[in-house]
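**User:**
My hope is that you can spare some time for a protein that puzzles me. This is the protein in question:
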Amino acid sequence: MSFLPSRLSLTARASLRTFSRAAQPMAARTLTTSVARFDASHPPIIQGSGAPDGSMPTDEDQSTGLERFELYGKLEGVDVFEQEPLPADRLGTVKDPIKVRSMYHEHHIGCTGFPAESHETLWLNLRLDKEHTRCPRCGSVYQLDYLGEPVNNHH
């Protein structure tokens, strides 16, 4: 069924006119910003410039965020996320625990025993509010070495 303007009833035409008037903007608004907003220093944007026109982008051109951070760390020869295994050359004790570095107040580790692979992997949760955590299977003691900013308990 076709709705041509000649077939519309008078009531339908009046409602269309009302609708079209309501859809029109009332007044054009101007966009204003404060100059002081642009004076503040911001953290650097971890984003590539993109590939030049007509060329295939490389990883350096198109990577962003944590991927770009990790990529440039590898180019410098630095493991930015420290993914190497924990030292398994000794058994951690309460007086000399195995320290686990972390930028966060909580860290999950997997203990495989001493000597290494002497028991199945047991997952332990190291927290900043606990002095140390002991593996229930082998007795090795781990401690969180917190590298982040001091904890503020206020809002």
Summary: Residues 98-146 form a domain with the HSP40/DNAj peptide-binding domain fold (CATH 2.60.260.40). The chain has a mean pLDDT of 79.
